[in-house]
Amino acid sequence: MVGMSAAILQGVPATTTDTDIWVDLPERQYVRLMDLVIRQGGTPMARTLYGLSDGSVVNFIFSMTGLKKFPDEYAKAVELMWNGLKVRVLPLARIYKSKHDSAREKDLAHLPLLRRVMRGQARTKPGSRE
Amino acid sequence: MKTTSLKDWPKVYRRLKGMRGMSEEERILLARSLAATPDERWNIHETFLRSHGLFSHWQRKAYGFKW
After folding, report:
1. Angle B36-A92-B35 (CA atoms, 0-180°, nearest 5)?
2. For chain A, which residues make up each domain, given as ranges?
3. Cβ neighbours of residue B10 under 8 Å, at least 6 residues apart?
4. A66 and chain B in contact, CB less than 8 A
5. For site-directed labelling of B24, which of A3, A30, A33, A86 has its Cα 20 to 30 A away?
6. Distance separating alpha carbons of residues A89 and B24, to the nearest angstrom
7. Domain A3-124 maps to which CATH number in 3.60.10, 3.40.50, 1.25.40, 3.30.460?
8. H, E, C per residue of chain A
9. What pTM was computed for the model?
10. B66 min Cα distance to partner chain A (Å)
11. B62 in contact with A, Cβ within 8 Å
């Protein structure tokens, strides 16, 4: 998981209306993802954006601005439990880098909040000074 | 700090006390968010969207959002 959903799971007090999932597939193979979602009751909204049967929205991402290739980032992803599943999320520092480099207005708006949470995380890590 | 959950936020808050540029209220909200488990964090997020009738894409569409 990448984007603000991944940030929320790591403690960023924010909200988002879709879950970004970075997939290690060439974009021309998006039909494979579409089939998978439709088989589970989802509805295509755009080529990479799907409404799921519970009303949530998933956006498949095929490349991330400012980051290394998928295998490099995946190897350093944070593993956490969510809804009874082990999921890998992009670390906050990498989410920050991607948003910074993409420089879209909505991404730049998140940077101060991400910085603040990273500062807070650093203080609550084992061995940090109280 | 060991794994925490939402109820442990006062412990996390104590560690954030010296953080500059934030009001006490902001520090408390950050402490709650950092203390929570991923599931608790997601529930807070979902509850917020639901409370505004904005959780599902069809609700958001009715509200005027594109998705």
Report:
1. 15
2. 3-124
3. B31
4. no
5. A3
6. 29
7. 3.30.460
8. CEHHHHHHHCCCCCCCCCEEEECCCCHHHHHHHHHHHHHCCCEECCCCEEECCCCCEEEEECCCCCCCCHHHHHHCCEEEEECCEEEEECCHHHHHHHHHHHCCHHHHCCHHHHHHHHHHHHHHCCCCCC
9. 0.91
10. 10
11. no
Cβ of B67 within 8 Å of Cβ of A49? The answer is: yes
Q: What tens digit of pLDDT does each residue of A53-68 get? A: 999 999 999 999 999 9
Q: Chain A residues with CB inside 8 Å of B10's CB?
A: none
Rounded to whole angstroms, the Cα distance separating B42 from A13 reads 10
Cα–Cα distance measured from residue B38 to residue B47, given in angstroms and rounded to the nearest whole number = 14
Is the CB of A13 less than 8 angstroms away from the CB of B54? no
Q: Please tell me the distance in Å from A15's CA to the nearest CA on chain B.
A: 6
Measured between CA atoms, how close is B58 to chain A, in angstroms? 7
The residue type found at A16 is T
B8-64 per-position pLDDT tens digit: 999 999 999 989 899 999 999 999 999 999 999 999 999 989 988 888 888 888 888
For residue A5, which amino acid is it?
Answer: S
Torsion of CA A126, A79, A113, A116, to 10 degrees: 10
Complex ipTM: 0.84
